[in-house]
Amino acid sequence: MSAIKVLGIESSCDECSAAVVLHDAGSMAVLGQSTYSQTGIHEPYGGVVPEIASRNHLETINHMIAGALSRANLRPEEVDVLAVTNRPGLVGALLVGVSAAKAMAYALGKPLVPVHHLEGHIAGVFLENKTAAAAPYPMLIAVISGGHTNTYVSHGPPELWPLDFLRKSLVGRSRDDAAGEAFDKSGKTLGLAYPAGRLIDAMAREGNAGAFAFPRALPQKDVLDFSFSGLKTAVALTAQKLRESGTLQNHMLDLCASIQEAIVDSLLAKIYLAARTRKCRSLAVVGGVAANSRMRNRLMDEWSRQGFEIPPLFPAPEYCTDNAAMIAAAGGIRFLQGQGLSGRALLELGAMANPEV
Ligand code: KG4
Ligand code: ZN
């Protein structure tokens, strides 16, 4: 099949994004992307307020679509396929993207591909990345975001994935909080602005990671799952004691470094364990927490000792946190497998907050 241009739309949480990706003979190039992050709007509440998120998506989405098309220098009718995140996420927020994509696809007479948000995150690693396209398999894939901490083993490139890839290939998951949530909730306890992951990453550079001994959960060698709720509680208790003694502010940098080290240690221990037991030859790390500099540096230092044949694969930083290019990437791959909807099926497409797959 000749090259296809896919317009992707993402509105599952607090980023409203549209992007056009050109799929051409197995390579994927971003022609234009436009993203509006609502984090500043939710910050005073210490977390995403679903109703505010969906109202804001409604006001923003048409501008993002127009912006992505204009950056790609395309008219709407020059797009071949539309792709939209329809699961999982905040249902009201998802519905805004799904409704916009349905209306546009129906009016233009173009097919629409529903995309699982996590497949999007994973596809992001293959965007404009020749090393990823030639990676050896099996590949361990870690999706580490604000909502998920999951590991998967993939035996071939996404073009070959069955529709139930995410369900069939899952090898580990968080039993409670996601890693991004651990960053954000610990940050909230320390009085840092939401979402705190990026700020903790920056402050940790000036702190001593050995200053506070926070727990690394589930040390058993036969457990591939993650757990972060114990860390959250330990941070809350430590912060309370320091606050009572009036010394919390003096320890902020050391606290950030120690929290980050506990999260990164826990993540890497289980990633390496899963890779070893499943004989993985390569590693991809995706999702918002994949932007963490300490984790990236450690993975870059340690990969050959862990038995991987190539350095770890990460999406470019702009494709780690939520974005529509990754959705257009995953949507194009699924379209080429025959997953485009049209007619009645297109009009009946819904959003799912918490699908099984
Ligand atoms: O993938 P994402 O944008 O949204 C979800 O699908 O959840 O991930 C957002 C998460 C937040 O928890 C945020 O604090 C975290 O990614 N994050 C980071 C960094 N940048 C974003 N965590 C640690 N270090 C970072 N540099
Ligand atoms: Zn995400």
What is this structure's SSE topology?
Blueprint: E1 4-10, E2 15-24, E3 27-37, H1 39-42, H2 50-72, E4 81-87, H3 91-108, E5 112-116, H4 117-123, H5 130-133, E6 139-144, E7 149-154, H6 165-168, E8 170-173, H7 179-189, H8 197-204, H9 229-244, H10 252-277, E9 282-286, H11 293-302, H12 325-336, H13 343-347
Parallel strand pairs: 1-4, 4-5, 6-9
Antiparallel strand pairs: 1-2, 2-3, 6-7, 7-8
Bound molecules: 5'-O-[(R)-(carboxyoxy)(hydroxy)phosphoryl]adenosine (KG4) and zinc ion.
Q: Can you put this structure into words, describing what you see?
A:
By secondary structure, the chain is α/β, with parallel strands linked by helices. The chain has two domains: 4-123 and 319-347, ATPase, nucleotide binding domain (Nucleotidyltransferase, domain 5), CATH 3.30.420; 136-314, Nucleotidyltransferase, domain 5 (2-Layer Sandwich). It has helices spanning 39-42, 50-72, 91-108, 117-123, 130-133, 165-168, 179-189, 197-204, 229-244, 252-277, 293-302, 325-336, 343-347, and strands at residues 4-10, 15-24, 27-37, 81-87, 112-116, 139-144, 149-154, 170-173, 282-286. The strands form two sheets. The protein has a five-stranded mixed beta sheet with strand order 3-2-1-4-5, sandwiched between helices. A four-stranded mixed beta sheet has the order 8-7-6-9, with helices on both faces. The structure holds 5'-O-[(R)-(carboxyoxy)(hydroxy)phosphoryl]adenosine and zinc ion. 5'-O-[(R)-(carboxyoxy)(hydroxy)phosphoryl]adenosine is lined by residues 13, 145-147, 180, 183-184, 195-198, 201, 287-289, 291-292, 321-322.
